[in-house]
Amino acid sequence: MRSLVLELVSIYGVQHNAQITNWVNEQMFRETSVNGVSISLVDVDEDRVIGSVKKVIAELSLTLNQLVNGTWLVASLGTLQQSFDATIELRPYIFKELLLKSLKIASEGFIRDGDVHERYLEDSHILHIASKSAKSAPILYAYLNGTIAQSGAKPFEFSCSMSDQELNGVITSYIDSKFNGVNPFSDEQWRDIFLASVYRRIYDKGVFTVISRDMSSEDVAIYGKLAGYGHERFATVKSDDDVIYCSYGRKIGKKMVRYNALEVKSECGTKPQPTLKLVVNKPAKVIPVCDISPAIGQPDVQNEWGEF
Q1: Rg for the chain (alpha carbons), in Å?
Q2: Chain mean position to CA 287
Q3: Are 284 and 275 within 8 A, CB to CB?
Q4: Helix pair angle (187-202, 217-228), 10° resolution
């Protein structure tokens, strides 16, 4: 992905080349398996990868630190599963950095089965005392506590949380809808996504009205974009999109996809790269065929049509 590095260097400056290269390498080495087929960003068209990164930078006006520390770039399947896509996922850092301009994050984390905890309304902190024996116990809640300083008055406290059922719903909806069957994250990385989901939730809570008072109108608008970024990936494809109609509005057929991206990838891993033998006056020369879908197979020209 040298092209992606060069693109980012042109945006942020050559002095950040090492930081950019490290981030790109981290994304490229993230690999997952779907139905026994291993996929990564290597399988995604390079233009799609560059387009996804440039899109998030432009829409959210990301600094280099926000991009490197606040985003992941992962491989996913397209809506119709005909191709691989590059999808940007936001991490907690990018939300927290914006909020810290006007408030203090007192604590954040996960309440596990066996921990001491008390939950109240959203205008108070969640009490959490972690148990040493519950470090690997199931997660009950993801939460954060925040504090806003008020001149001449007691600091305003707030909290936001998501239950284990909601967190499981995050995993299911991301894999089934956002990534179309791909699970690109480890358990540790999913916990990052859980916290990011809590930060997203704040925007829809009544307490955000209080939080936004100390934020600039520009930061409030950006936070709204962060909270909703990537939601279009959850949109389902209408069945009518696959139906073919004639000029008079009568249904005359339905679109079919013969091969999906996973099948092609699987076949690529088991079949040798097809070759064509060029018959010339000189000794035969073998040249690989650059076929975008070798899964279908390319017959040997001489075997198929005979010796020329």
Answers
A1: 25
A2: 38
A3: no
A4: 130
CA angle 69/235/201 to nearest 5° reads 50
**HEC string for 125-146:** CCEEECCHHHCCCCEEEEEEEE
Give the closest residue to 107 by CA, choosing from 131, 133, 135, 128.
128
Residue written as tokens 């440039």? 54
Number of CB atoms found within 10 A of residue 164's CB: 17
Distance CA 76, CA 230 (A): 13
Strand partners, 76: 85
C-beta separation of 94 from 226 below 8 A: yes
Six token digits for residue 240:
């009518």
- pTM for the model: 0.75
Phi, psi of 201 (to 5 degrees): -65, -35
Structure tokens at 64: 């280099």
Tell me the pLDDT of the chain (308 aa) as tens digits: 789 999 999 999 999 999 999 999 999 888 887 777 788 888 888 999 999 999 999 999 999 999 999 999 998 887 766 678 899 999 999 999 999 998 999 999 999 999 999 988 888 999 999 998 888 899 999 999 999 988 878 899 999 999 999 999 999 999 988 888 889 899 999 999 999 999 999 999 888 998 998 899 999 999 999 999 887 766 654 444 566 666 655 666 655 555 454 454 554 554 343 333 444 444 444 444 444 444 444 444 344 444 44
Q: What is the DSSP string of 252-280?
A: EEE---S--HHHHHHHHHHSPPPEEEE--
11 in helix, strand or coil? helix
Task: Work out the end-to-end distance of the chain between its first and last CA atoms, rounded to an integer number of angstroms.
Answer: 41
